[in-house]
Structures are given as structure tokens and as C-alpha cells.
Design a protein that fits this description.
With about 140 residues, the chain is α+β, with helices and mostly antiparallel strands. The chain is built from 5 helices and 6 strands; from the N terminus they run αβββαβββααα.
Length: about 140
């Protein structure tokens, strides 16, 4: 299952379980992301507008053990990943938005490569927030001018 093929909750669960994220028995919205017990919280919302995401970001900051938060729109066309840290970071993908082809491919590659890591750190989720590819592409295009 690819993220761009998700159309319902069961697809989202399949997407995560195919990547070996372990669903918590005590809370079905939590998935283990690494051997350190860090968690990904998944939530489906009617609205993923700026104010809603900001409210969720504040709630997210208070959750112990949850390092990442995945918000999905009710129609499963928008996905927002948040990372907890000193400065929470947000990465959003909208299936209906027109992206440059290379930008869309880069985003989908990152999203579709996330997986559970049998180690103390999960670089696949961390990489969602890295901008090194964008910066590198900018410099290549800038030098070509």
C-alpha cells in the first residue's frame, strides 16, 4: 500500500502495519516506531486547516512518549506529519495539490519509505522533515543560471 492509495481508515492501518509499525493494544491510535518505545499517534480529523493543526500541535506537545503525530483528513486526501521537539516541525502532503513533478516524487518517496526501525532511532520518520534535498536542488538550479 502506498500513501497516495489510502482512501479509508483500513488502508491507513494497512499502510502502517505493512511498514511494521506495531499498533498498541491499549490505544489503537498509537504505533511503536522504534525499540526505544517512541510512538506515532494517528488521528483522522474533519478539518486540517491551520487553526486545527495548531490546536493539535499544542495537544501533541503534552503527550508523553509520542514523538510523531500523523493527522489525516476525513477524506484521506491530506496527511500532516508533526515531530515533537524544541520546535515542533510539520510536513503536509495533499493528494489534490499540484506540486512540481520532482517535488511530488520526492515527497512520496519519503512518505512511502517510512517504516518501523529495530533500533533506538528512526531515521525514516526523521527524514520527512529534512530539507537537504530541496536545498541541494536549489543550489544546482542556481549554479545553472
Amino acid at each position: 500500500m502506498l500513501i497516495e492509495d489510502i482512501t479509508c481508515e483500513s488502508d491507513l492501518v494497512t499502510f502502517l502495519t505493512e511498514r511494521n509499525f506495531e499498533r498498541q493494544e491499549h490505544r489503537q491510535d498509537l504505533y511503536s516506531i522504534d525499540t526505544q518505545g517512541r510512538l506515532l499517534r494517528v488521528e483522522v480529523l474533519e478539518d486540517l486547516s491551520g487553526p486545527t493543526v495548531q490546536l493539535k500541535r499544542m495537544d501533541f506537545a503534552r503527550e508523553v512518549g509520542v514523538q510523531y503525530h500523523l493527522l489525516a483528513s476525513r477524506g484521506y486526501s491530506i496527511f500532516a506529519f508533526q515531530r515533537y521537539g524544541p520546535v515542533p516541525t510539520l510536513m503536509t502532503f495533499d493528494k489534490n495539490r499540484r506540486y512540481r513533478e520532482d517535488t511530488r516524487k520526492s515527497i512520496l518517496k519519503k512518505l512511502n519509505s517510512i517504516q518501523y526501525i529495530d533500533a533506538g532511532f528512526n531515521p525514516t520518520l526523521f527524514s520527512l522533515f529534512e530539507v537537504s534535498e530541496i536545498v541541494k536542488r536549489f543550489y544546482v538550479e542556481f549554479r545553472a543560471l
